[in-house]
Amino acid sequence: MVPALLLALALFAPLAAAQQTGPLSVECLGCICEAVSNCNRTLTCSGDVCGLFRITWAYWSDAGKPVLQGDNPGADGAYARCTVDPYCAALTVQQYMTKYSQDCNQDGQVDCTDFARIHRLGGYGCGAPLDPVYEQKFVTCINHVQTLG
């Protein structure tokens, strides 16, 4: 788990340096990535999800249809090209969270736990129970981040 987490953190660290900001920390992005796909950079599109964040077309659209530099949101394949690229996919997640940021677990604060719920359950369903496998991977990752902290 720790080597995978360190890989995820290294992967998303350039986002902070590139000033592609949003409500999620690099660590939070890394743990969501870890929980949803083990941060597998080789994932392409399968069924209705794409990339290491397993993003749907609707999620990408709700996030404002971000694209790779020089691409066009209306072009065929723009969704897939963005969501299989780690940086564009992370930007998609950031923009989605900016739109749907809320206190899903009603603990009085909006934090990474809420963002993990929004990512998995959507902006309108984040109060529902998480599936146990995703939740356990996420909690384990966050606990590791806090011990490294």
TrEMBL record:
<keyword id="KW-0378">Hydrolase</keyword>
<feature type="disulfide bond">
    <location>
        <begin position="82"/>
        <end position="88"/>
    </location>
</feature>
<keyword id="KW-0081">Bacteriolytic enzyme</keyword>
<dbReference type="Pfam" id="PF05497">
    <property type="entry name" value="Destabilase"/>
</dbReference>
<dbReference type="GO" id="GO:0042742">
    <property type="term" value="P:defense response to bacterium"/>
</dbReference>
<keyword id="KW-0732">Signal</keyword>
<feature type="disulfide bond">
    <location>
        <begin position="33"/>
        <end position="39"/>
    </location>
</feature>
<feature type="disulfide bond">
    <location>
        <begin position="28"/>
        <end position="112"/>
    </location>
</feature>
<feature type="disulfide bond">
    <location>
        <begin position="45"/>
        <end position="50"/>
    </location>
</feature>
<protein>
    <recommendedName>
        <fullName>lysozyme</fullName>
        <ecNumber>3.2.1.17</ecNumber>
    </recommendedName>
</protein>
<dbReference type="InterPro" id="IPR018247">
    <property type="entry name" value="EF_Hand_1_Ca_BS"/>
</dbReference>
<keyword id="KW-0929">Antimicrobial</keyword>
<keyword id="KW-1015">Disulfide bond</keyword>
<dbReference type="GO" id="GO:0031640">
    <property type="term" value="P:killing of cells of another organism"/>
</dbReference>
<feature type="signal peptide">
    <location>
        <begin position="1"/>
        <end position="18"/>
    </location>
</feature>
<dbReference type="InterPro" id="IPR008597">
    <property type="entry name" value="Invert_lysozyme"/>
</dbReference>
<keyword id="KW-0326">Glycosidase</keyword>
<dbReference type="GO" id="GO:0003796">
    <property type="term" value="F:lysozyme activity"/>
</dbReference>
